[in-house]
Amino acid sequence: MNEKIKIDPYGFREYDARWLYEENINLEGIKNLGKGLGTQIKKHTKKNNPRVIVGHDYRSYSEKIETSLIEGLISTGCFVENVGLSLSPMVYFAQFNLDADAVAMVTASHNENGWTGVKMGIQKGLTHAPEEMQELKDITLNENFYKGDGNEKKIKNFQEVYKKDLIEKNKLNKKVKAVVACGNGTAGIFAPDILRGIGCEVVELDCELDWTFPKYNPNPEDLEMLHAITKAVKDNNADIGFGFDGDGDRVGVIDNQGNEIFSDKIGLLIARNLSYKHKNSKFIVDVKSTGLYSKDEILLKHNCETIYWKTGHSHIKRKVNTEKALAGFEKSGHFFFNQPLGYGYDDGINSAIQICHLLNNQNNTMSEIIKNLPVTYQSPTMAPFCKDEEKYQLVDELVKQIKEIRNNKTLIDGQLINEILTVNGVRFSFDDGSWGLIRASSNKPSLVIVTESPTSNDRKKKIFDFIDNLLEKTGKIGEYDQKI
Predict the structure, then answer these.
(1) CATH number at residue 277
(2) Which of 64, 241, 263, 286 is 20 to 30 A from 420, comparing alpha carbons?
């Protein structure tokens, strides 16, 4: 008798799918996900045998999961082209390079061990948006599957094609000494080779593949990973430190003095660098990002516009696409470069390359370049536990409360709220440029909290205390993952 199908509906998230394997999904559930995805791809492409690129990350169970997913895809009539062990951006690149109809990447990105998931997309360079995820969920859970005769073919050595593409377009004129940290995730077999290829002197840190993640999760927002890179940068007297996440679509950056630079500030430096050559450009940034973009003198001088948009790689990617923006930057380290710099999807290694170009074009060190930006005091991204089934409703309540606080002209640390942005949760700003954000996490049972002040560290903390107090009163919040 077949194993009973197990597939938790909450695993279908805003723009990808993630579950704890085998607790919330089993192999039969994954197979059904493949059938659902195959059906959806056929529906959208109107082809009997659409070609689907499939790859997987280095977790111990990822190949097993990939095999079940492929079985499901084949049963609907999809022709699967399996590129094997991959980074998410390599799979996105393969769709362009091999001119395929869709992609499916087996990864839970930086989530802890035990998690699995799939990032997928049909239109080139884009991943599923909430509407497509909802459609996939409906097809899969209702088992409205198409039937067909598909097949699988293995694409050999595609890793080399991807590496070569990035190396050939991006040679540096001067040597940049870079610490390359991969947290034992899949980026370890890509990032050092590519950065060496463009002309960097590479110092490897935890680049050997080890799916147990013995030191920490490969997550460039994780302070533990950033501290390890800081030490390696100082010990090796390096020009820059890069930290890549588990599936290689994000990067974290440490300057030559060992200071952590949040990715939104890096994005602003890259945007400035690009604005000289690409005047009148648009840049998209997520609501967790620094308020400096909107008032930046160099961007304004070059007539560049910044749009704040929903957090999440799928949302920013789409907005970059629909606005025909030159680039998009997400605080979590997802950067998107549109033509002529890239194909619009997020690639942590291409992002690191753009930072190397920044160093290549200027005679300053990274710490000197960063000093050109106004000082702001930023919190890390903080995630207090909140149940999946309660988090969105809770955020809606908090939006109402914050609007009332503004309407009643209540002071927070002596300041009035002057602007509220609700494209994604609530981002409330003050006259001095300080702001706070509360939103629901798209990929785990938690909220996301960020605060920033250009005035003082104390004000950053006071805005957080105000948020923390609001949350505590709801009685629906658990432990924080990290807290200022």
Answers:
(1) 3.40.120.10
(2) 263
DSSP collapsed to 3 states, the chain: CCCCCCECHHHECCCCEEEEECCCECHHHHHHHHHHHHHHHHHHHCCCCCEEEEEECCCCCHHHHHHHHHHHHHHECCEEEEEEECCHHHHHHHHHHCCCCEEEEECCCCCCCCEEEEEEECCCCCCCCHHHHHHHHHHHHHCCCCCECCEEEECCCHHHHHHHHHHHCCCCCCCEEEEEECCCCHHHHCHHHHHHHHCEEEEEECCCCCCCCCCCCCCCCCHHHHHHHHHHHHHHCCCEEEEECCCCCCEEEEECCCCEECHHHHHHHHHHHHHCCCCCCEEEEECCCCCHHHHCHHHHHCCCEEEEECCCHHHHHHHHHHCCCCEEECCCCCEEECCCCCCCCECHHHHHHHHHHHHHHCCCCHHHHHHCCCCCEECCCECEECCHHHHHHHHHHHHHHHHHHHHCCCCECCECEEEEECCCCEEEEECCCCEEEEEECCCCCEEEEEEEECCCHHHHHHHHHHHHHHHHHHCCCCCECCCC
Are residue 172 and residue 288 in the same domain, yes or no?
Answer: yes
φ, ψ for residue 65, nearest 5 deg: -70, -40
pTM for this prediction:
0.86
Six token digits for residue 6: 């197990």
Same domain, 136 and 196: no
Distance of CA 102 to the CA centre of its chain: 20
Cβ atoms of 453 and 429 closer than 8 Å = no
For residue 38, the tally of other CB atoms under 10 A from its CB is 30
23 and 151 housed in the same domain: yes
The last residue of a domain, from among 156, 187, 220: 156
- What is the pLDDT at residue 2? 57
Q: How confident is the model at residue 199 (pLDDT cuts 50, 70, 90)?
A: very high
Q: Return the bridge partners of 306, or none.
A: 283
Q: What single-letter amino acid sits at 168? A: E
In tens, the pLDDT along 281-313 reads 999 999 999 999 988 999 999 999 999 999 888
- Which of these three, 112, 141, 156, is where a domain ends? 156
**Domain containing 385: what range?**
377-474
211, 360: one domain: yes
